Amino acid sequence: MSMSKLNKTRVYEVYDEIINWFDDARTKNLMESEYLNLIVNAIPPKSSILDLGCGTGEPIAQFFIEKGFKLTGVDGSQKMIELCRKRFPDERWIVSDMRDINLQQQFDVILAWHSFFHLDHDSQRNMFKIFESHTKPGGVLAFTSGEEEGEVWSDNGGQQLYHASLSTKEYESLLKNSSFKVLVHKVCDPECGEATVWVAQKI
Description:
Elements lengths: L2 H7 L1 H7 L1 H7 L7 H10 L5 E5 L7 H7 L3 E6 L2 H10 L4 E4 L11 E6 L8 H14 E11 L4 E7 L2 E7 L2 H10 L2 E10 L5 E8 L1
Parallel strand pairs: 1-2, 1-4, 2-3, 4-5
Antiparallel strand pairs: 5-9, 6-7, 8-9
Helix pairs in contact: 1-2
């Protein structure tokens, strides 16, 4: 298997290689605060959070933990999960590819923030079954994508990382067919690293 193919299908192995760079480079100033506060205001206290692609736990998981929510973090990177366990030992941390999870549990919130867009097109489509089965009725799903359908590679810590996006129309269809209604869709938000943000609620 070529390195580009490996990077495309198992991005978390690249993150194992660049963990120190990533942890230093990842902004801790919560540029996502607008969306995180929207989520907090939509759910009860002590709600359960499933953070898919949780990375090193800072700042997103940390934000919810410090507000008293019960967090389960999932990441394919063994090294990142080890760091999460060290930083936040009272939370539940799972080493797994998000495409493989079947936790037999539903959550008030599912996050796939700056992680979902590392999946290829078919994997993204298949994730909506997982989102639906793991979200409580009335629960919130938040994820980031690109602005339009396509695939790109970007340099991160000297390694090439794969990103992909479906079209807006297809995301809207996938959400609707998975029992979610769109609350927020903001394209290339400059306050959020130019990510396209989706927030939806299960109905």
